[in-house]
Each structure stands twice: as structure tokens, then as C-alpha cells.
């Protein structure tokens, strides 16, 4: 069965997000002053086949931890749906 | 009221995603051969205050189109929740 995994990678809370600070400052210069915090991360949409949702979930965890994130600074979550 | 906007920025379908192709090839080299397609994009979590959800939604659309995306190559969608 074909699945679509949507993976959201963000910095761990303890990690400073300089890019987020830069974007917040830029938004304030554009008068979007009610913006209080910005975190920028990576977003992946990955199509994969697997026997069932549990197998697909295990695959996503495996390749995300092996390739897509930096364990020292990043954390992730994902959604899985039939494609 | 404080809101959290989750913004997902991806390439338009017509645009080649070289980074996605590189990641797919790397996943295949790691024997994740059931991966069929990879798209990489940007993910933002932005906290903002607004009078209500409609106002927050308008703000998100305004600053996303003004600063966060490249109109020629990218498209976006977002979720909005009370923070």
C-alpha cells in the first residue's frame, strides 16, 4: 500500500534558532508587531509503500533518525496517511 | 488572544526538487527502497496575537506571502490553533 508521510523537523527547545530570530526581526520591520516567536524547521513529504500503517510508521522512524535529522539539535514528529 | 500558526512551504508541483531527489537517492543507498518520492520544504511555527482566528488567519496569509515564500517556485498551506 502507498503511504504519504509528512515529517516536521524542528530544533530542540534548548537550541537557539538564529534563523527564527532573523525572521521575527524582519516581520517586525514589516510592521507585523504581534508576531511573538518564530521557529523555522524542515518539512518533508515522502511517499513510500509498506505492508500496512504500522510497517510504514516503523520505516519513517528508521529513515528519519538515520538520515533526515541531526540528533544533537533537532527533534521531529510526523503524520501518516494513505496516498 | 495568542495563536500558533504552523506553516508548510513546498515547491510548486511544476518545479524540480533537486534536494528531494538527492535525499531519495541517499535513502535508496541505505536500502529504504520502498521510498518512491521525496519533497523537502520549509516548516515554520509562528506565535502571534490577534483579536480572533479570522484576524490571525489574515495576518498569517499577509506575512507569509510578503516574506516567507518565493511566489515563483513555492506554495504554502497552514494550520492555526490557539496557543
UniProtKB/TrEMBL annotation, chains A, B:
Entry keywords, A to Z: ATP-binding, Cytoplasm, Ligase, Nucleotide-binding, Purine biosynthesis
Primary residence: cytoplasm
Metabolic or biological pathway, per its Swiss-Prot or TrEMBL entry: Purine metabolism; IMP biosynthesis via de novo pathway; 5-amino-1-(5-phospho-D-ribosyl)imidazole from N(2)-formyl-N(1)-(5-phospho-D-ribosyl)glycinamide: step 1/2
GO MF annotations in UniProt: ATP binding; phosphoribosylformylglycinamidine synthase activity
Catalytic activity: N(2)-formyl-N(1)-(5-phospho-beta-D-ribosyl)glycinamide + L-glutamine + ATP + H2O = 2-formamido-N(1)-(5-O-phospho-beta-D-ribosyl)acetamidine + L-glutamate + ADP + phosphate + H(+)
UniProt GO BP: 'de novo' IMP biosynthetic process
Compartments reported by the entry: Cytoplasm
GO cellular component labels: cytoplasm
SUPFAM superfamilies, A to Z: PurS-like (SSF82697)
Domain of life: Bacteria
Pfam families the UniProt entry points to: PurS
EC number(s) given by UniProt: 6.3.5.3
Family classification: Belongs to the PurS family.
Function: Part of the phosphoribosylformylglycinamidine synthase complex involved in the purines biosynthetic pathway. Catalyzes the ATP-dependent conversion of formylglycinamide ribonucleotide (FGAR) and glutamine to yield formylglycinamidine ribonucleotide (FGAM) and glutamate. The FGAM synthase complex is composed of three subunits. PurQ produces an ammonia molecule by converting glutamine to glutamate. PurL transfers the ammonia molecule to FGAR to form FGAM in an ATP-dependent manner.
HAMAP family in the record: PurS (MF_01926)
Subunit-structure text: Part of the FGAM synthase complex composed of 1 PurL, 1 PurQ and 2 PurS subunits.
Name listed for the protein in its UniProt record: Phosphoribosylformylglycinamidine synthase subunit PurS
Lineage, uppermost ranks: Bacteria, Bacillati, Bacillota, Bacilli, Lactobacillales
Amino acid at each position: 500500500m502507498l503511504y504519504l508521510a509528512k515529517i516536521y523537523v524542528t530544533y530542540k527547545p534548548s537550541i537557539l534558532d538564529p534563523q527564527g530570530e532573523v525572521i521575527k526581526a524582519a516581520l517586525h520591520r514589516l510592521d507585523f508587531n504581534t508576531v511573538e516567536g518564530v521557529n523555522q524547521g524542515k518539512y518533508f513529504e515522502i511517499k513510500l509503500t509498506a505492508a500496512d500503517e504500522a510497517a510504514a510508521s516503523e520505516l519513517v522512524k528508521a529513515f528519519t533518525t538515520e538520515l533526515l535529522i541531526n540528533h544533537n539539535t533537532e527533534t521531529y514528529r510526523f503524520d501518516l496517511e494513505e496516498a
